[in-house]
């Protein structure tokens, strides 16, 4: 079985990944999934830079087919699936209340203590899997995980058609967040730096503006930082109105230097936001309310990882076909 591996000693040596052909462990009580397609996201690029101190097989966005399953889960064999990435201990208070995403002993596919999706096969418990409806092809289904992460924002703020939203960033995740928030009827302004990406945003129904444009400060009810950079949060804080909400959607390796007193004076709510509902994401993608085709910048074999990661650094979604 083939996989892309980050070796721990390589992280500081500038050649972080290589391909191996070693057997991939299917953990006891879990399913083995043959990966059809995997997606590269900003977090993966950050993992390559040392984010979360991860070594091993990266990648957490995938669609695949279940090859083996333990007794009791055999009905999953042969099904086309996507998978939730957090695996909890199963016994703590978080896991018992169905929020394994926050289990302190969790492993996370391709990010923390668990081999990921940039491989021919991966291992996940059946409880993490969701069957992909026929209406979603593989190229769309591979977007379920990041779309679910965008859907999480809907559970953290009550959007109305009068809500003014600014999405800071024009990358693949920002374009998903903007589309998901637009499904509430809210007016979404997306701020970015790249002509081509801004055109995609405007084709998808958002008001696209250059990040250098003069915009009314303290104007938006909700601002979402999806830049993956420390400066994004500053801009999100500048644009939010007093008593507004700033959603933090960027995970990156490093610190954010920020003056926080304006958030106190303006009584701004800061909300961290991570993984969300796969069922909601599958529904939005299946209804065609969130479009992914304009986001795909290319599909590469695992062996072409150097080109694939380079492309992902400047363009939108890059897919790997292991
Ligand atoms: Zn991701
Ligand atoms: Zn737990």
Label the CATH architecture of the largest domain.
Alpha-Beta Complex
Count of the domains: 2
Report the bound ligands by name, code or SMILES.
Answer: zinc ion
Low-confidence stretches: none
Oligomeric nature of the chains: single chain
Anisotropy-based shape = globular
Could you state the CATH homologous superfamily of the largest domain?
A: Medium-chain alcohol dehydrogenases, catalytic domain
- The CATH topology assignment of the largest domain is Quinone Oxidoreductase, Chain A, domain 1
Structural features, described:
Helix 4 packs across helix 9. This protein has 10 helices and 17 strands. It has 2 domains: about 170 residues, Alpha-Beta Complex (Quinone Oxidoreductase, Chain A, domain 1); about 120 residues, NAD(P)-binding Rossmann-like Domain (Rossmann fold). It is globular and about 55 Å long. The longest helix is centred in the middle third of the chain and has 11 residues. Helices cover about 25% and strands about 25% of the residues. Strands 3, 4, 5, 8, 9, 16 and 17 form a 7-stranded mixed β-sheet that branches. Strands 12-11-10-13-14-15 form a 6-stranded parallel β-sheet, sandwiched between helices. A two-stranded antiparallel ribbon has the order 1-2. By secondary structure, the protein is of the alpha/beta class. Helix 8 links the parallel strand 14 and strand 15. The model has no long low-confidence stretch (mean pLDDT about 95).
Detail the topology: elements first, then pairings.
Layout: E1 3-6, E2 17-20, E3 31-40, H1 42-48, E4 61-68, E5 80-83, E6 86-87, H2 93-96, E7 107-108, E8 121-124, E9 129-131, H3 138-141, H4 144-151, E10 164-168, H5 172-182, E11 187-192, H6 195-203, E12 207-210, E13 220-225, H7 230-239, E14 240-248, H8 261-265, E15 269-272, H9 278-286, E16 296-301, H10 305-314, E17 317-321
Parallel strand pairs: 10-11, 10-13, 11-12, 13-14, 14-15, 16-17
Antiparallel strand pairs: 1-2, 3-4, 3-8, 3-17, 4-5, 5-9, 6-7
Helix pairs in contact: 4-5, 4-9
The chain binds zinc ion (ZN) (2 copies).
């Amino acid at each position: 079985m083939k996989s892309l591996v980050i070796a721990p000693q390589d992280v500081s040596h500038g050649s972080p990944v290589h391909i191996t052909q070693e057997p991939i462990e299917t953990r006891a009580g879990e399913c083995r999934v043959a990966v059809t397609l995997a997606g590269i996201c900003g977090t993966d690029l950050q993992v390559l830079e040392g984010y979360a101190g991860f070594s091993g097989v990266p990648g957490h966005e995938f669609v695949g087919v279940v090859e083996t399953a333990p007794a009791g889960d055999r009905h999953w064999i042969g099904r086309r699936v996507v998978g939730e990435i957090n695996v909890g201990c199963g016994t703590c208070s978080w896991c018992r209340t169905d929020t394994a995403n926050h289990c302190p002993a969790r492993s996370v596919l391709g990010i923390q203590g668990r081999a990921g999706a940039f491989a021919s096969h991966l291992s996940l418990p059946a409880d993490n899997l969701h069957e992909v409806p026929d209406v979603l092809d593989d190229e769309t289904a591979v977007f379920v995980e990041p779309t679910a992460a965008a859907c999480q924002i809907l559970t953290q703020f009550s959007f109305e058609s009068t809500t003014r939203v600014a999405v800071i960033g024009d990358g693949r995740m920002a374009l998903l967040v903007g589309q998901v928030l637009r499904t509430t009827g809210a007016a979404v302004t997306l701020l970015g730096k790249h002509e081509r990406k801004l055109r995609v945003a405007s084709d998808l129904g958002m008001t696209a503006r250059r990040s250098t444009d003069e915009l009314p400060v303290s104007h938006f009810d909700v601002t979402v930082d999806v830049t993956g950079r420390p400066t994004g949060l500053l801009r999100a804080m500048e644009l939010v109105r007093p008593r507004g909400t700033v959603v933090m959607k960027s995970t990156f390796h490093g610190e954010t230097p920020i003056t926080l007193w304006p958030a106190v004076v303006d009584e701004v709510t800061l909300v961290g936001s991570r993984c969300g509902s796969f069922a909601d994401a599958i529904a939005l993608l299946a209804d065609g309310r969130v479009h992914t085709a304009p986001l795909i910048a290319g599909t590469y074999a695992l062996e072409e990882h150097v080109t694939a990661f380079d492309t992902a650094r400047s363009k939108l979604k890059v897919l790997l076909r292991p």
